[in-house]
Predict the 3D structure of the following.
Amino acid sequence: MTIESEVNRLRARLMSKSGDDTAPAAAVARRRVELSPEHYDIAQFPEMREYANMRWYYDNQGLAWNMYREHLGVASAEVEIEGRKMLNFSSFNYLDLSGDPRVKEAAKRAIDIYGTSTGSGRIVRGEIPLFGEFERELAELLGVEAAVMGVSGWGMNAGVIGYLARGQDLILYDELVHNSMLTGAKISGARRIAFPHNDCDALERLLVTHRGSYERALILTEGVFSMDGDIPDVPRLIDIKRRHRALLMVDEAHSIGVIGPRGLGVVDHFGLDSRDIDIHFSTLSKSFAAIGGYVAGSKALVTMLRHYAPGVGLYIAAPNPANAAAALAALRIMRAEPQRARAVVAIADHFRERAQAAGLDIGPSHGSGVVPVMLPDSETALWMSARLFDNGVFAFPMIFPVVPRDGARLRFFLSMSHTREQVDRAIDLLVQLLASAPRPKGMI
Ligand SMILES: Cc1ncc(COP(=O)(O)O)c(C=O)c1O
């Protein structure tokens, strides 16, 4: 393909607004559809039936509805919910920086200087020095050439993957990667194949079979898996991607700031050269105490994303100044105070040890701040979460479709501000409640 035709194709991809660009799919003979309310009445869509079923279960069991519950105060180890002080295991504020006076002060100062919005996309006139400062300091800390920050973790992950891979490319992803990665893979139009969780042999076999039929090949994994709290074998993934000339992307949402002696994620944890991971991604909503995302890697990657990828610098407004300032302040604290990361893993290890000693199933969780407590079914997960809430502990249930139907669990996020006493209280309560949980009736 000549450079000119590649540029024309890129332009068409960025600019195309009209015409039927789903023509190949539309060309497949389609059956005639008998219209019924579930095709035009949103209240009849299958999700709404699932939701009604869940609400009915809560009412039937006399449980208080626990979704979209408002809290007051900073989401730390304790939060105030409905006038009660609750022990909180459902925030990603790993390093406890969301309420840190230095982070709050930086955000306030940014509002004083820049207002609450830059009023434009970065590429046009939305650029302010805070973005560049964050990106340069992050790239230096990670040991890569460049970084770019964006407005939303989910949106940036989906947008960047959706942009990098094209119809003629291959995406191989760990079956447990986050929805934002999956969505990016879907919108890219590339061939997508999941490999079994952390199964490098299976990944290798897929590459042997399929690599030769595609142009770019992208391997997607996470630094710490958000549902299971385990860490993949990144050195092995690097070896595989090298031999098959693929690109490796690691979502470090739950690993950056937490794992590794300096808390700098998988590179720090395994003692790797950062340049061996092609695309470093993380959200800013966890250890960075803000909201948004970043991609880091080579200068070429970052230059391309900044100038061409929709949802990074194009077709999207700039990050908000207060947010960028908070992320920058958190980054500086993360660098200066690595003991925070070690405290997260230490308290999570205490949780894991106590839970296992009490006979609870914590799945494959190790070395991270995420600990699931596996439960037999969705009903038990909903019931346990509601009863914990009644007893002053907030731990959110994870049920289908967020996890497989047989993977229901409560998920605990540990932060450096949790104490051993708080963890012990939660474990004792879990054990006590689990012993009295009603047998599931197959309602959900
Ligand atoms: C692994 C992972 N990736 C991406 C995201 C998306 O980030 P955000 O929620 O900050 O948009 C999340 C969020 O929970 C996540 O857990």
